[in-house]
Amino acid sequence: MPADPDCIFCKIVAGDLPSTTIAETERAIAFMDINPGTRGHALVIPREHSRDLLEIAPDDLAACASLAQEIAGRAKDRLGADGVNLLNCCGADAWQTVFHFHLHVIPRYKDQPEKDALRLPWVPAPGDMDDIAAAGKELS
To answer: For a 10 Å CB count at each end of the chain, is N or C smaller?
Structure first.
């Protein structure tokens, strides 16, 4: 898909907007998030414009996942992160705000509130097993 002239991530790929780029491959680019949730929060995007997870080409998705894995390892090795979250938001109702596929690579820091104030957006609790089975059947 050609670059979207209104997409800020396409503008970053083209070099028309500044970014703190930390890694690049032929298909993907990683740069620092300017609205970080934690110290070292980075974004990984495909060079080719894809609106979201449902639109991205499989090869671009694989390239983004591979680069995100590399950045996650760097966060642990170089920033001393205790863990890492990978997050993708697909659609406005799932918190997507930039409509160019991207993975958030979010370093997590145990017992370091100055670096990590993120909390789960829900409290995991057992679900209704019949509903779980019904949804599973629909997704099978």
So the answer is: C
pLDDT digits (tens, 9 = 90+) for 35-48: 999 999 999 999 99
User: Given a cut of 70, is residue 11 above it in pLDDT?
Assistant: yes
Q: 111: which DSSP letter?
A: T
Query: Residue 44: which residues within 8 A CB-CB, separation 6 or more?
Result: 28, 29, 30, 64, 67, 68, 71, 102, 103, 105
Catalytic positions, written as ranges: 102
Domains annotated on the chain, with CATH: 8-139 (3.30.428.10)
Distance between CA atoms of 85 and 31, rounded to whole angstroms?
A: 16
52-70 mean pLDDT: 98
Supply 18's token pair: 């500044």
Q: Which two tokens stand for residue 12?
A: 């970053």
